[in-house]
């Protein structure tokens, strides 16, 4: 065999092997219903395999580079694929952060003999590749192969939008991306921002404020707002839940909406989402202790606000929406309970960022919340029956109802107020639209409500009366920043009373 063919065979063998070992495991928990969806998965794996061949070709081009890089590539791929299968864990910036701040005790808790066997096996296979490569003395026309491999890689990674989205979530691209994103998040959080000025208008001996950021929950699918299906049985049975059915969100995706909600940004000053601190910093300055407990990733646009909190917890740090395995908002409760128990401060803020109604809906619905059936079976939303999509979606609302109700139980005997606001709504087949981010009308009316404890109602009767009076008025999501501070007896500079749920007003403008 000539050197050229020996090299070609080596590259193809390595590419196929790496695809089977490091890419295929990403699809083990993919929901499939019938041959069409199995075929889709096979096509995806094959398309992703092209990238592995291009990478293998580059790593094996030079003997010394191969001897150094192939074992490293195999060991890292072995570790990541093991965790992907054993723990349904994938690489993202939150995991990079967790890995950098993990102590050795936690590491030993997730290390096993199976991991060691798998990684050693991968290392031995990689040494065989190195040996094979070493026997090929000189690769003919190496420059042509180098340019060809880079071209193949570029076409694979950037050539098609859909494939790019998937490729960016696979080994090794997700490692490179996550580390890069982690570094840029750290940098972004160090950029100068102004802390909004606030002044106290009322005081209390103690107050717990809970802000739950919902995900893709639309107001008109809450039975609290008249939806005919009983999606909120627990919240409906609670006293002191005030639903706000007419909230308008100008943004329809998480990255744009969450910073707008947390900061003093409004329709006239949208730039404040990038230049101002959030209510977390304001409350900290007023003596509140604060915690951010998340079931989502660090988002580039709102990471600076996460870093404002005293305590940051990601109970499901290794999950992304590319992991088709269940994880629930209920998983946040133990972390929240522990914090409440440990903390002795009288003024506390908890921000809970939920995964809520994010696609794949079934993954975020515990069994006790499956109320509507049949549910979706295919990970491609358009390949499901539209009624099944609505059933699965409504189950996520039932799940939200259980989660928020459980949170309320933890605070009901304290002086406490809870805000729930989803970042945006969701399209469920209207005019052929699905999911969110495209700006469709139904994605612009997020679910929103406020709960307050009896003690809060006794402390601030005027605020509660104003809240009830304002419940059916139309607000933009701009209300959240000002109203949350107002609920704490604080008035932010520039607080136009039309943003404040806790001030009586004769009329509010429609958005
Ligand atoms: Zn979202």
Structure write-up:
The longest helix is centred in the C-terminal third of the chain and has 26 residues, at 386-411. Helix 1 (3-23) packs across helix 2, helix 2 packs antiparallel against helix 7 (142-158) and helix 4 (93-100) packs across helix 9 (173-189). Strand 5 (289-294), helix 14 and strand 6 (311-313) form a beta-alpha-beta unit. The strands form four sheets. This protein has a seven-stranded mixed β-sheet, sandwiched between helices. The protein is α/β, with parallel strands linked by helices. The chain has helices at residues 3-23, 35-59, 63-87, 93-100, 104-109, 113-135, 142-158, 161-167, 173-189, 233-237, 254-262, 272-275, 279-285, 303-306, 333-342, 386-411, 454-459, 461-470, 479-487; strands at 198-200, 207-214, 241-243, 247-248, 289-294, 311-313, 347-353, 416-422, 427-428, 434-435, 448-452, 475-476, 490-492. The protein folds into two domains: 3-188, no CATH class; 199-499, Alkaline Phosphatase, subunit A, CATH 3.40.720. The protein has 19 helices and 13 strands. Zinc ion (ZN) is lined by residues 215-216, 253-254, 423-424.
Secondary structure elements and pairings:
Elements: H1 3-23, H2 35-59, H3 63-87, H4 93-100, H5 104-109, H6 113-135, H7 142-158, H8 161-167, H9 173-189, E1 198-200, E2 207-214, H10 233-237, E3 241-243, E4 247-248, H11 254-262, H12 272-275, H13 279-285, E5 289-294, H14 303-306, E6 311-313, H15 333-342, E7 347-353, H16 386-411, E8 416-422, E9 427-428, E10 434-435, E11 448-452, H17 454-459, H18 461-470, E12 475-476, H19 479-487, E13 490-492
Helix pairs in contact: 1-2, 1-3, 2-7, 3-6, 4-9
